[in-house]
Amino acid sequence: MLPAHPDSRPGGTVRALALACHPLPTLGVTSISAGLAALAGLGFGRGALFTLAVMAGQLSIGWSNDWIDAARDQAVGRPDKPVARGVIPPGRVRAAAIVALVAAAALSMSLGWRAGLAALTLVGAGWLYNLGLKATVASWVPYAIGFGSLPAAATLALPGRPWPAWWAMTAGALLGVAAHAANVLPDLRSDQATGVRGFWHVLGGRATAIGGPVVLFAASLVVLLGPGAPHVWTWIALAVIVGLAGTGVAVGLRSPNSRLLFLATVALAGADLVLFARSGSRLTA
User: What is the membrane topology listed in the Swiss-Prot or TrEMBL record (predicted)?
Assistant: First the structure.
């Protein structure tokens, strides 16, 4: 039984919903979608519509996660989960998740059915993860499929509905798998205590700590070499990427929970996004 002590302060429900939506991942994926819209060449109006569609989908995923996992989060005493702390009733978060899901579907399909289905693939993958795939060795699959479909959602919203280049979808899928590693690493012990045995859980903390930078490095190689013949800047970027990935792996081997590992991973992910931007003119096939 979850405690019931809703926040009665002005704005308490809004504050609780903001915390329950997984704000950092939601903001991160929304920002990436805005960048992809710009790289694909969507105009301001359609780019904003695309970004709002992705944001609504991410809100629905975050809220559904906290609603579905409320009892599990309470069992391990998660202080960062408003539903588990009883600050907001699970039913209210469930309602928010469903409203956001409906909004995501409407906004996505307004881009055209092809782009809409690609955008909703990310949403569906997130919900499937929350509904049970997170506890299986296939937990990486929703991340790979969801993030891999995001470049397609952006380019299919263009006139002529072109598909993205193969390297864009491949890099997106790899970034998704790396994001999965970064997302579960802080919660490995609490997840295992409640029966969650996903892909990275089976491999263990140290493998997860080094796996994220390794997969990000693979994504970097795809973005660097996929668009075509390398240039001088390519080799300079490769040297930077090797240094960041090497730092991440070395720190992960010594101290999987190190703050330095987190910073190296964020820097590596940021470098990948810069590389994506550098290759933006060739985002379509």
Answer: Multi-pass membrane protein
Tell me the residue type at 69. Answer: D
> Nearest to residue 29, comparing CAs of 243, 176, 227, 241?
176
Which helix (H) or strand (E) covers residue 207, if one does?
Answer: helix 205-225
pLDDT at 275 > cutoff 90: no
With beta carbons less than 8 A apart as the criterion, state whether 200 and 181 touch.
Answer: yes
> Is the pTM here over 0.70, yes or no?
yes
Under a CB-based contact definition with an 8 Å cutoff, are residues 215 and 181 in contact?
yes
Whether the predicted pLDDT of 10 surpasses 50: no
223-250 pLDDT tens trace = 888 776 666 666 777 777 777 777 777 7
Confirm if 60 and 111 have CB atoms less than 8 A apart: no
> Which pLDDT band, with edges at 50, 70 and 90, does 9 fall under?
low
Identify the three-state secondary structure at position 2: coil
- The residue to which tokens 């998704």 are assigned: 176
Contact of 116 with 110, CB cutoff 8 Å: yes
Tokens (6 digits) for 160: 């002529």
Q: What is the largest CA-CA distance in the chain?
A: 61
Q: Residue 161, SS3?
A: coil
């990310």: which residue's tokens? 122
